[in-house]
Amino acid sequence: MFKKIGLITFLLVIGLSLLTGCQGQKREVNPASAGRAPESQVNQAAGKAGSGEVVLTVKGSGVEHETKYNLDELKSMTDALAGECYSTVNNWPAKKFFVGKGVLVSQLLRKAGIKDEARTITVTAADGYNATLTREQLDEKRYCFPNLQKGSAEGAREVPAILAWEHQEGASDLSKAVGGNLRLLFGQKGMNDVVTAAYVKDVATIEVSTAPPGRWDVVGAEPAPGKVKRGTGVVLSHPGLDRVKIYYTLDGSTPDIKSLVYNPSATYFQPDLIKPIPVDKPVTIKAIVIGYGKHDSQVATFKYDVE
Ligand SMILES: Nc1nc2c(c(=O)[nH]1)N[C@H]1C(S)=C(S)[C@@H](COP(=O)(O)O)O[C@H]1N2
Ligand SMILES: [Mo]
């Protein structure tokens, strides 16, 4: 099924370009015109009355020019269309696949003239809901894990961040994607990566900022490191626990996105899944915080001995 997606993507791109009848003819908004397409251009792109409405604005201190698009203009970016399947985990955590057809976010940013100094990308819905990714989080390699349900990373495929105008939750077959509002979709960095919360629905703006995002606070531990009674449970803590994942190791190695997850569920869903780490023998817990919108925390090291 996953092998077919490449072919389907290809056919989609060909199909869309035939439908819109504009192969090689870019209809992106002229940045010089204050981000607004000339009326005649909008009408031409729209094809029918009413669909020339601006659906997306790319703006902010991190781009050279504010850029606005109507849906037809997005669909006519034939060199930047993609149809993909995405593996996801939400805050419950429930594992699901999503499919989507849309335009590459990287291309939208490039067309707005993203600056070297750009640091964060905030995607905001018409209702104000938003998600921020650091530039690194958007640019780094992200994957679809086709064997996510089995907990295996086997067959991981790199997938791009897109703004999808056709999408479907709970499907892995691209033909199931149906028309809707613009939705942000992007790959997972690791199999516990909660991407769903950042799959902003009804996207209206992408704001690129040069402001540094900062770093997540380090993990805290209770009781404090040192000598403890055998069987003591170490509780890890973080002020933004429901917005981040704490990854940890017990073998002295540096934790990363592939390490054990301390908080697989958000506290408001299944708090019982967040279990203290038992100290049955001398152990060193190393923990890192990874979450959207800020850089990874420093690694915290907690060393325990048993009495
Ligand atoms: N505009 C908007 N997008 C949103 C949200 C929202 O409240 N508003 N919720 C997010 C969260 S927390 C999740 S888990 C998913 C839920 O997506 P679904 O409704 O398709 O299951 O959408 C994300 N995108
Ligand atoms: Mo969620």
From TrEMBL:
Oxidoreductase molybdopterin-binding domain span: 56-212
Record region (Disordered): 29-48
TM stretches of this protein: none
PROSITE patterns: PROKAR_LIPOPROTEIN (PS51257)
Top-level taxonomic group: Bacteria
Protein name: Chitobiase/beta-hexosaminidase C-terminal domain-containing protein
Species, as recorded: Pelotomaculum isophthalicicum JI
Phylogenetic classification of the source organism: Bacteria, Bacillati, Bacillota, Clostridia, Eubacteriales
